[in-house]
Structures are given as C-alpha cells and as structure tokens.
Write a structure and sequence with these properties.
This protein has 4 domains: 181 residues, no CATH class; 105 residues, no CATH class; 52 residues, no CATH class; 76 residues, no CATH class. 33% of the residues lie in helices and 18% in strands. It contains 16 helices and 15 strands. A 7-stranded mixed beta sheet has the order 13-1-3-4-5-15-14. A 4-stranded antiparallel beta sheet has the order 2-8-6-7, with no helix packed on it. Strands 9-12 form a two-stranded antiparallel ribbon. α1 runs parallel beside α3 and α9 packs across α10.
C-alpha cells in the first residue's frame, strides 16, 4: 500500500470509515438508509431561513445495497421538491445530484465520484457534501451497532403557500380544515397514564369528528373560520422570513394565485453536538519545561536568570530567546496543551517553570463576548454558522451537556425492507406518509448517464470489499 500522506483528509476519512469496513457490517447496513437537507445558496445553516422556497433546499438521500457482483454500492442522491400546479401535489423526486459514495472521493474528481476539496462558490469541490455524507454514514453505522429501533417512514418538511395579502387566500372547506376545526372541541376522556392518552389518540380524534358533524351549521362554520385564521402565518410571525402570508398546502389546491411556495424546516432542525466548553475548565498540569530543556542540552533556570541580566538585542540574549521559542512546541506536545491556548501563553509558562502550565482555557475569567468567541473558535465552520450566541452561553452554563446547533438539519436514519426492490422500498405515497398531496420517490435506477473520469490522481491502495 502506498503512503496516504498526500491524500486529502476527507479521502483518508472515507477510506478509514467506509473502505475498511468489514463485509459483514456492510451487509448488515443494507436495510439502514438516511436523509437530511442542506438549505442551498452555498450555506449549510437554516438559521433565519426556516422557510425555504420550494426546491431551493436539497435533500441528501444515502442508501447502500449489493451490486450484481456482490460488492457494496452506496448511492448518494441530491433530491429537490417540485409541485404539480394543477393538483397542488408536492413530489420529492427531482434528482439533481447522484454520486457513487462507495468510491473514494479525490481532488479533481468528476462525474459520479465526489471531489472533497473546498473550492467555494463557482468551483468544483464538494467538501461540505462529502462531510455531510460521511456524517450520515457514521450515524447509519451507529444505528446498527447500537440496535436502535428505526422508523420506516421519513418526516418531510411542511409545505406552505405564500400570498402577498391575506385576502387573496381563498377560504375552502376541506377534510384537513374540518380536522383542525374539530381539534378546537373539548372531548372528555379518562386515563391514568400518558400511555393511555397515546393509545386513545385516534379514538379521541374520531370522537371530535363525530361531535363536530352533529354541531349546528352556524357553529361548524364559526369553528371552520377560527381554524382557518389560526392556520394562517402572518408576515410578522417570529420565524417567518418570507414577508408573505402563509397557508398550509393541505388547506388549498389553487396555487396559481400564490406568490411562492415554501418548505418549512422548523420541525426538522436543531442538532445536539459536542460541547467544547467541557474542555475549557482551566485544567493545569505540572510544567515540563525544565525537563524538556535538559533533554535538549541546556539549563532553563540558568538561561532565565542570565536573560534577566542581559541587555535586550545582544547576541547572547537572542540565542537564549531562540532556545525558549523552540521549546514552545515541545511543551505544547508534552503537556497536551489545547490549541485554544496561545503560543504566547505557553511561552509565558516556560518563563515561569516553577508554576503549573494551563492546558485548557478558563472561560469564567473572560467577558461574555470573549467566552462566545472562544467557544466558536473551537467549533468547525459548518457548526459555528449554525449556532446562536444564546445557545453557546447556555452550553457554557452547562458544560457537561450538549451544545445545540439550532440551524443544522437533523439526520433521519430509517429502516427499509430489503426483500422488495429499492424503487419500491424507497417510494412513498401520500397515504404512507400520512400527508395530503405529498409524495416521494427517493430511488431512480439511472438518474444520470455521465461516466466518472478515471481517478489518475488517486494513489492506488488495496481496500477490502
């Protein structure tokens, strides 16, 4: 095997995480697939963007399956939603991207192989897409390893129709509106536990519908109007970033009068991640500077004493100063000093060899804004952009709990039936989704015909199937 030193870090991670996975584990992961979303617009965060224009956000769908030769394949789809205007039916079947994720990404790749480089807007790199795909794969493996009980049906965004003014939204009595109106009724029930309430949920809903049906027409119409008004989302609502009046798609079928159609991700975002404040408790260890200096052939205490009585700028002063500077990385490595501790702070510790060296920063000694900036500095870029200051402050107050990345979309790990073809297992009708006029087809046998470029720049390695 050739050296991997010249590989891209994401290529190395792919090889370590996927390429070296045992054949048995690969087979056991076939029933487990995953989806998540990116908001589009070269941004990975839904903060302030919970409502996205229909089709702007891209769903990542990852599924593994056996090829004809028995080897594993990992299909990675990028799927967008579209709407049929005549029926107001939303379909998740617009395949925009397809890649073979079982093939190692490498810089300069094209076609079905991903390029892991971060080349930014207008470039060809897929770095953020590769990172997200690796995260989805890791969660799929974790779900199998931990024997999680997985759902079979995905949870898709809510759909809203946007209107320039409230009056344009035409009041239409529908089955969904009657359900919402019936929910305004009080239905008595008896039970001793929450499980009783859950088990009787369908029974209570049926009871409400029956009670609603026997109400006088005037009362029913009043409840229908109340349900209609409460379903409308005002342009001034807290999470409404559209500037439009919004109406749930289940309550309307005429889309020709709308300004725009939106997907709402408010119920699908918010991911707990590792809290870096846990490593910022101000931990100190014994100072290894004297021992390290001795191993390099000089007496640190004598040099510091000489430095204090030597004029700055002289050759002797500069020689001692250079020895101290060269000691910084040695001390950092020996004491396992956090990267959040600056080299200047490590140098200061070397100049006080009788004092312990701080290996973790002390957040309590910083102002609030400095605390936030320090924690943000410990986060990766995509998590930092998806995290609010208030959540960072909460994480600092509770360092042993997680940090909430409020703008990250959750990854849904799901179970499929491996006894049926993929095109059937990953096809969901409106009834199977429990949604009115929303359907999804996550699998297409040949989404694109493009062939990948030969991976000439990728070092050859032998990888287990």
């Amino acid at each position: 095997m050739k050296s991997l030193n010249n590989w891209h870090p994401l290529s190395k991670r792919h090889l370590s995480q996927i390429g070296r996975r045992s054949p048995e584990l690969r087979r056991q992961m076939y029933p487990i697939w995953g989806i998540t979303w990116r908001p589009g617009d070269w941004n990975g965060s839904f903060l302030g963007r919970k409502y996205r224009t229909l089709g702007a956000a891209t769903m990542m769908c990852q599924v593994s399956y056996p090829q004809s030769d028995g080897r594993e394949a990992i299909g990675l789809f990028g799927i967008a939603a579209r709407i049929e205007p005549t029926t107001a039916t939303v379909s998740y079947d617009n395949v925009r991207l397809y890649h073979d994720f079982h093939r190692v990404p490498f810089p300069g790749a094209r076609g079905k192989i991903l390029d892991p480089s971060d080349s930014g807007r207008g470039g060809h790199g897929n770095g953020s897409w590769v990172r997200l795909a690796l995260d989805v794969d890791r969660l799929r493996e974790r779900a199998h390893t931990n024997h999680y009980r997985l759902p079979a049906t995905p949870n898709l965004p809510q759909i809203y129709l946007g209107y320039g003014c409230k009056e344009v939204a035409k009041f239409v009595e529908s089955v969904e509106l009657r359900k919402r109106a019936a929910e305004l009724l009080e239905v008595p029930w008896t039970g001793n536990t929450l499980s009783d309430l859950v088990s009787r949920k369908a029974e209570m809903a049926e009871g409400r519908m029956q009670a609603f049906a026997v109400l006088p027409a005037e009362t029913r119409n009043e409840l229908l109007r109340r349900a209609w008004e409460s379903s409308l989302v005002s342009p001034t609502a807290a999470d409404n970033n559209t500037g439009l009046w919004l109406l749930p798609q289940e309550l309307a079928t005429d889309v020709y009068g709308v300004v725009r159609v939106f997907e709402f991700f408010g119920d699908l975002i918010g991911v707990p991640v590792f809290n870096p404040a846990r490593r910022m408790s101000g931990k100190v260890v014994a100072n290894p500077a004297i021992a390290l200096a001795t191993s390099k052939g000089f007496d640190l205490v004598h040099d510091l004493d000489t430095l204090a009585h030597t004029a700055e700028g002289t050759p002797e002063f500069q020689a001692i100063e250079q020895r101290l500077i060269e000691l910084v990385p040695k001390v950092r490595k020996a004491a396992d000093v956090s990267y959040l501790i600056s080299d200047q702070d490590v140098l200061n510790a070397i100049c006080q060899p009788d004092q312990p060296v701080a290996v973790e920063p002390v957040l309590e000694n910083l102002a609030e804004r400095q605390q936030i900036e320090t924690v943000r500095g410990a986060l990766t870029a995509h998590i930092s952009e998806a995290t609010m200051d208030c959540d960072i402050l909460e994480a600092i107050r509770n360092p042993h709990g997680p940090l909430l990345a409020a703008g990250l979309c959750q990854v849904q790990v799901l179970q499929r039936n491996v006894r049926v073809p993929l095109k059937d297992a990953l096809c969901f009708s409106a009834s199977s989704l429990g949604r009115d006029r929303v359907e999804a087809t996550f699998w297409q046998d040949s989404p694109f015909s493009s062939q990948p470029r030969s991976p000439r720049s990728l070092p050859e390695v032998s990888v287990a199937a």
